[in-house]
Amino acid sequence: MNGLKHDWQADEEYMSYIEDLINTEEVQKLGEFTQHHYSTRLEHSISVSYISYRLAKKWKGNARSTARAGLLHDLFHYDWRTEEYDGGTHAYVHPRVAVKNAEKITELSDLERDIIIKHMWLATIAPPRYKESYIVTMVDKYCAVNEVVVPVYHNAKHKVTSFFKMAS
Asked: What gap in Å lies between CA 145 and CA 96, rounded to an integer?
């Protein structure tokens, strides 16, 4: 999450929107699962939530619902790379599992439900209904790529630098 850790925790408005969710056992358990090779599902969810919240505020959307649904969009507790599931592809199934899990810890608005269910749009066919859903969908893709590409780039850069130091 690079520089996000301090930013999101210091943002009083953001924290007021997610404080009832962030320390629940269900959300904290996301820290036990690797998401995109170099991040946990909890780190990923916080990144998606906070960046989406900031964009929703900037674009005059519902920042509260965006922050909350962004945090809950991947609220599932299994390793999708190794575990089998029924009902379709992981891209289709996990948002529905996340909604069911989210509804166990909070009441969801129609907007929040749409954000969570539709965040895999482009990998699934049903498009989002709200601009906040599009925000979370695109931020989710951005974070996923960033969580893989940045560490890979830094590892490659380190290897190249080390190679040239050894060669000189």
From this structure: 23
